[in-house]
Amino acid sequence: ETGVTQTPRHLVMGMTNKKSLKCEQHLGHNAMYWYKQSAKKPLELMFVYNFKEQTENNSVPSRFSPECPNSSHLFLHLHTLQPEDSALYLCASSLQGQNYGYTFGSGTRLTVV
Amino acid sequence: AQSVTQLGSHVSVSEGALVLLRCNYSSSVPPYLFWYVQYPNQGLQLLLKYTTGATLVKGINGFEAEFKKSETSFHLTKPSAHMSDAAEYFCAGGGADGLTFGKGTHLIIQP
Q1: Given CB atoms, is A92 within the 8 Å cutoff of chain B?
Q2: DSSP 8-state assignment for residue A87
């Protein structure tokens, strides 16, 4: 257990479904991140939240919708996904302004059928 | 732009042999450097980090890395590979504004 908890660990969804991924940390961090990791591709930074405010959105399609209600929780709402969205989705957190690195969750393995 | 380059997408070594995974960073990257390890279907786990001070950094599982400013390198080493070291390794650099990750190196351990 790293201190960053992601649920669910595995998710299979149809292209017309709506689902949400959840990330939770109680490390006292104030920045949270969503990454997408596809097979044979580099880590892709999707969204960054600092102090609950979104500070980065790397041209992510609107079928991915993040939500950060407080500094401890981060969600990724999914709807009308495509098969190419199948990937490992990783959440991370850090202490903004410090150089201690990121703490990652174990990820959610998403399969879109 | 900041960049972190890992040389070799795959590295194969025999069990018991030296492990050397290479990482170079651009000079625009603040000198805060990290190595992460990822086992299948898991998140990234911090192996070690360099922020300030001693340039030879020791991490978990017997790994260490040396920060060489003159070579803009931060290579990861382990004297004797173990089968359990088989995983994906990521070098990352950055500062308070965020990390830049390399593309990863898949370490294969041959019995």
Answers
A1: yes
A2: E
Which residues of chain A neighbour B46 with C-beta distances below 8 Å? 101, 103
| pLDDT score recorded for residue B95 | 66
Categorize the per-residue pLDDT at B99 as very low, low, confident or very high, splitting at 50, 70 and 90: confident
Which member of B43, B46, B98 has the closest CB to residue A48?
B98
Q: Which of A42, A88, A97 has the CB atom closest to B104's CB atom?
A: A42
Residue A30: Cβ within 10 Å count: 17
**CA B97 – CA A8 distance, rounded (Å):** 29
CB contact under 8 A, B42 and A99: no
Picking from A101, A44, A35, the residue whose alpha carbon sits closest to that of residue B32 is A101
Q: For position A51, what pLDDT does the model report?
A: 79
Distances (CA, A) of B90 to A10, A11, B2: 23, 25, 16
pLDDT value of residue A1: 60
Which residues are CB-neighbours of A1 under 8 A, at least 6 positions away?
none
Task: Kindly state whether A69 is in contact with chain B, defined as any CB-CB distance less than 8 angstroms.
Answer: no
Whether A99 has a pLDDT exceeding 80, the answer reads no
**Contacts of residue A83, Cβ cutoff 8 Å, sequence gap at least 6:** A15, A112, A113
- Name residue, tokens 């990121």: A102
CA distance A4 to B23: 27
CA closest to B33 among chain A residues: A101
Amino acid at A6: Q
Tell me, yes or no, if B82 comes closer than 8 A to chain A by beta carbon: no
